[in-house]
Specification:
single chain, 291 residues, alpha+beta, two-stranded antiparallel sheet, 4 helices, elongated
Length: 291
């Protein structure tokens, strides 16, 4: 594939021009809509949402590594069980590919460069891998899920696809679908990366992804005492008036009882009036007898 053809990729979703810097890179992500594009077939392979990952290297940064000027061209996050790691891919103007990998467990950075001799993907039952003309024993295997892609990466992968990894002494074999790459691995201090790319003096703390790592339960809010129930003011006023009227009626009833007042035909009679009436009645009876 010619250099002109490599740089003439358009996004199959939005049509925006997408750069493909080298034939070593198998997948590129559209910076406008996030579509994952196969750099060989120019077909869409899914989407990748932009997210923050645990690496100080971001696409577009430039720095001198191994005596060459490199530029960060892509980022990749992989998940395997409770572990995760982030890889930044670097490409020089001389078409040399490097990778810097950071593990979520805080074991520092690893500097990876592809070997001169590639190999086919090892079979699931293989115990050795042919590297540099000799058989290298496979010490461990694992499967990783692709959680995030940005920029360009050297494997034919897309978000949520599976990548297989075989670890050998000093080497790392990664393959997915029809692509395989063998890395020569060695540790690298963060100071080397910091000085090469003019990064901050302190290494940033890891920031786990909420949807990939288990979430801790949110703390319960502090307990607050219940608010006392308050009645409306007008209900209190009406209750007070009813109590006052009841007390007033009780007072009037007790006063009437003590005075012996009675109501008869609308006229109020007293004990004196009753005695006078009886005296007048006796006089009328005597006058009648005389007649």
């Amino acid at each position: 594939m010619s250099e002109q053809a490599l740089r003439a990729i358009n996004c199959p979703k939005c049509g925006a021009p997408v750069s493909a810097s080298s034939a070593l890179l198998r997948v590129t992500v559209c910076p406008y809509c996030g579509t994952v594009i196969d750099a060989g077939s120019h077909l869409a392979m899914g989407r990748s949402k932009r997210r923050k990952i645990d690496t100080p290297l971001l696409p577009g940064m430039k720095g001198i590594m191994e005596g060459e000027l490199f530029q960060v061209i892509g980022l990749l996050r992989c998940l395997s069980g409770n572990e995760s790691w982030d890889t930044a891919f670097l490409l020089s103007d001389q078409d040399h590919l490097l990778a810097v990998r950071r593990h979520s467990g805080g074991r520092g950075h690893e500097f990876m460069e592809p070997t001169e001799h590639s190999t086919d993907a090892p079979s699931p039952s293989a115990a050795f891998v042919s590297l540099d003309g000799r058989d290298m024993p496979i010490t461990s295997r694992l499967q990783a899920r692709i959680a995030y892609i940005e920029g360009q990466v050297p494997l034919t992968i897309h978000k949520k696809s599976t990548m297989h990894v075989a670890l050998c002494p000093g080497h790392r074999v990664e393959w997915a679908q029809d692509s395989c790459i063998v890395w020569r691995v060695r540790s690298i201090p963060f100071a080397t990366i910091r000085d090469a790319f003019n990064l901050a003096a302190a290494e940033p703390a890891p920031e786990p992804l909420p949807e990939d790592l288990p979430e801790e339960p949110a703390p319960l809010p502090p307990a607050t005492p219940p608010t006392p129930r308050r009645f409306p003011i007008f209900l209190v006023s009406i209750s007070f008036l009813i109590i006052m009227l009841s007390g007033l009626c009780s007072s009037l009833s007790s006063i009437r009882g003590s005075l012996g007042l009675k109501s008869s035909g609308g006229t109020i009679s007293t004990p004196g009036d009753k005695a006078g009436g009886e005296h007048g009645e006796s006089r009328r009876n005597r006058s009648t007898k005389r007649k």
